[in-house]
Write a structure and sequence with these properties.
Helix content is 67%, strand content 4%. With 318 residues, the chain is mainly alpha-helical. The chain has one domain. A 3-stranded mixed β-sheet has the order 1-3-2. It is globular, with a radius of gyration of 20 Å. It starts with a helix and ends with a helix.
Length: 318
């Protein structure tokens, strides 16, 4: 980790856009220890086996036909930053028409902000099946990521078996593959709502409906994944969830501030709210009914219906 090199990369931000993405990536990597991806004997096969077995279990539980990417990447933190900077750049592209003659000092500030974001996430993301990353990618370009140094670090701090924790992460990411496999329209739907919101912000307005729809859709994504995890994972997991929640709440004030600024508290709320919605639907009906959310965009529950699942059921029954 070299903070001087990181600061120098941010200070050297250039170009015509609001953010110098190459400088942001270079600065984030300079500020982040990459971690090791020197694998133990049999570890690579263990990752692949976890993904295969998770796919079989989730398919059986959900009754949804889907596949997982052919590529399962075991990354360090720098790999994750490089893989995601292009995604951030594409999603933020809605700002580009509004950045003519962009002041250099503002570009430097924006580049520094993105550096902090990439570095923080690079040190904390465990696994990834990212719908925005896949929105326009050919089928054979899809990839499932595991950030090995973060998985091992989290398992050690949580005092849980690393193999068991890795398997739990694999199951969680495969549930997301099931969702986007069942709903090919979903990634485009999410990206469109995000781009609408960003475009409005760049015009100096706030598209409340776009962000509300995006939040509702992501709540469904996270809640359904939690539902499948409950039914598909082949080991005890309550202690893993409890320890992760305790770790998030027990972090220092600076980390809690970062989580708030990055909206990670919102993500936790999405988990909980979505899980409550689907648990009610399954209790009243069944898992097959819950899976109707993926038939078409119109079947996604609205923001109000997430807190009133019976209203969603009445609408779906019409």
């Amino acid at each position: 980790m070299n903070l001087y090199r990181s600061a120098r990369a941010v200070a050297g931000a250039s170009g015509d856009d609001a953010i110098d993405w190459r400088s942001a990536a270079d600065a984030a990597k300079a500020a982040t220890d990459p971690g090791s991806i020197t694998l133990d004997p049999g570890e690579r096969e263990a990752y692949a086996r976890d993904v295969r077995e998770a796919r079989a279990a989730v398919r059986a539980v959900a009754g949804v036909d889907f596949d997982v990417p052919e590529t399962v990447e075991i990354q360090n933190r720098h790999h994750w930053i490089d893989a995601n900077v292009a995604t951030f750049e594409r999603v933020m592209g809605a700002l580009e028409p509004h950045t003519e003659d962009f002041p250099g000092i503002a570009r430097t500030i924006n580049t520094g902000t993105m550096t902090v974001l990439l570095a923080f996430l690079g040190r904390n993301v465990l696994g990834q099946y990212d719908p925005l990353l896949l929105a326009d990618a050919p089928e054979d370009d899809h990839a499932l990521y595991f950030v090995r140094p973060n998985i091992l670090n989290a398992a050690e701090k949580l005092e849980v078996d690393a193999d068991r924790f890795r398997r739990w992460i694999a199951f969680h990411e495969v549930t997301h593959a099931a969702e986007f496999g069942a709903a090919p329209w979903l990634s485009t739907h999410l990206e469109k709502r995000m781009e609408d919101g960003i475009a409005a912000l760049s015009d100096g307005s706030f598209d409340r409906e776009a962000f509300r729809d995006l939040d509702a859709a992501m709540t469904v994504v996270e809640g359904y994944a939690e539902l499948l995890m409950d039914h598909a994972f082949d080991d005890e997991y309550a202690d893993l969830r409890r320890k992760l929640d305790e770790r998030r709440q027990g972090r220092g004030p600076i980390q809690r501030l970062f989580r708030r600024l990055l909206g990670l508290g919102l993500k936790q709320r999405q988990y909980e709210r979505g899980k409550d919605f689907f648990e009610h639907v399954v209790a009243v009906r069944d898992l097959e009914t819950a899976s109707l959310v993926w038939e078409r965009p119109e079947n996604l529950p609205t923001n109000d219906e997430l807190d009133a699942p019976d209203a969603w059921l009445r609408r779906i029954d019409r």
